[in-house]
């Protein structure tokens, strides 16, 4: 490791170890951010090592994997499928510190960037801290979101949350800096545990990867949702809203998979929407971008977004957005500007907002499209990379 007083240290490439409990091929916001961050850092010449669970228990080891066009060194630790969840894999917690010691013996790292304080990030943070290696931690998790998968009885929920956040606090206090995607998420973390100075840094996207359709539209009928089909996403609220608009002949496309796929199919049948709803499942990056381009409005009823990469992708695709007025979504969707907010769970209000957007005259609709495009500019991935590089090097941030 180069001594901190070396004048060449400011510009030299760094060796960065990224600890990720979820990574490709997983499809979720935390995994997508980790992929974009790691690939972006590699493109800038840094030596990036991603540490994550193996896809199958037997298929572990060190691999070169191409992510976003960049070859990355990926350390796949022996992973186990968590049966209550449809895709989640984990490294045995009682072995995580052992693996962390091995990795830090093998790789001379300048900094560890933890993407999760649950297993791998928790272990690497503790071992790195013991060895004097700086740690930057990013929080993508609200402990409340994992309650459905713990199999705990509800009377133990409060105890679980107290223990989980106490452990998160201990882990974060071993870090040089703690970040979250938005100021609102930072305030949530500071108000939940005894920690201050949390830095909001957007997950970032590359706007040029998306293709807005700004041509005048005679008919607007395609509603889009992209994300995991889990309880906190509340896709059923959007289904109920669409059922209240039979005269608009809407088509609702749902991109993503998850444990709620079967129950959402049942809701679709109960509401008589089989001919108006298409479950596309998990799709390729190209198919995803095409779905954004052909849509007329993006709807997200989630109540647990610390930022929402999907919403930023929709904005980069020139879509008006209708979002639940919860957690970080108001940070992206400004009511009456690039779309509308609605009371979480209120299908009647969502239906009203859908009608407003899809029946707006062309000038008003185009104005909302441009507002989305203008609003996503500040979330450019290059700004995100610049900020994390400063944190890795211990440099002051621009305020």
Automatic annotation (TrEMBL):
Which keywords has UniProt assigned to this entry?
Answer: Glycosyltransferase, Transferase
Q: Which GO terms describe its biological process?
A: carbohydrate derivative biosynthetic process
Q: Which residues form the Glycosyltransferase subfamily 4-like N-terminal domain?
A: 27-205
* Name of the protein this chain belongs to: D-inositol 3-phosphate glycosyltransferase
User: Does Transferase appear among the keywords?
Assistant: yes
* The UniProt record lists the keyword Manganese: no
Xref: Gene3D superfamilies:
Glycogen Phosphorylase B (3.40.50.2000)
**Source organism of the structure:** Microbacterium oleivorans
Output one GO MF annotation.
Answer: glycosyltransferase activity
Q: Name one Pfam family in it.
A: Glycos_transf_1
Q: Which residues form the Glycosyl transferase family domain?
A: 213-370
Q: InterPro entries recorded for this chain?
A: Glyco_trans_1 (IPR001296), Glyco_trans_4-like_N (IPR028098), Glycosyltransferase_grp1 (IPR050194)
């Amino acid at each position: 490791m180069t001594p901190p007083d070396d004048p060449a240290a400011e510009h030299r490439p760094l060796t960065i170890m990224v600890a990720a409990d979820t990574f490709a091929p997983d499809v979720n916001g935390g995994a997508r951010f980790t992929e974009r961050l790691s690939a972006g850092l590699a493109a800038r010449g840094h030596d990036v090592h991603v540490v994550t669970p193996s896809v199958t228990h037997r298929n572990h080891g060190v691999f070169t994997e191409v992510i976003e066009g960049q070859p990355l060194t990926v350390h796949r630790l022996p992973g186990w499928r968590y049966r209550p969840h449809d895709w989640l894999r984990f490294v045995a917690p009682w072995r995580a510190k052992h693996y962390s010691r091995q990795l830090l013996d093998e790789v001379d790292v300048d900094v560890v960037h933890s993407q999760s304080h649950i297993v791998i990030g928790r272990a690497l943070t503790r071992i790195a801290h013991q060895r004097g290696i700086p740690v930057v931690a990013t929080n993508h998790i609200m402990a409340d979101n994992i309650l459905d998968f713990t199999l705990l009885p509800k009377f133990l929920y409060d105890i679980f949350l107290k223990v989980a956040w106490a452990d998160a606090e201990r882990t974060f206090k071993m870090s040089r800096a703690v970040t979250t995607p938005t100021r609102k998420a930072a305030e949530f973390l500071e108000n939940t545990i005894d920690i201050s100075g949390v830095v909001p840094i957007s997950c970032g996207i590359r706007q040029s990867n998306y293709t807005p359709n700004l041509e005048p539209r005679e008919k607007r009928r395609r509603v889009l949702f992209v994300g995991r089909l889990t309880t906190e996403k509340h896709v059923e609220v959007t289904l109920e809203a669409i059922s209240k608009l039979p005269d608009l002949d809407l088509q609702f496309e749902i991109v993503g998979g998850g444990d709620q796929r079967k129950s959402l199919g049942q809701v679709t049948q109960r509401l008589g929407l089989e001919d108006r709803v298409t479950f596309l499942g998990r799709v390729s990056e190209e198919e995803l971008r095409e779905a954004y381009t052909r849509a007329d409005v993006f709807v997200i009823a989630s109540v647990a977004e610390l930022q929402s990469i999907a919403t930023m992708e929709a904005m980069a695709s020139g879509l008006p957005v209708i979002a639940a007025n919860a957690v970080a979504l108001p940070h992206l969707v400004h009511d009456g500007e690039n779309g509308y907010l609605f009371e979480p769970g209120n299908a009647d209000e969502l239906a009203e907002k859908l009608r407003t957007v899809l029946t707006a005259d062309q000038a008003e609709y185009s104005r909302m499209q441009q507002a989305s495009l203008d609003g996503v500019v500040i979330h450019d991935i290059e700004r995100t990379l610049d900020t994390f590089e400063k944190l890795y090097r211990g440099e002051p941030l621009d305020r």
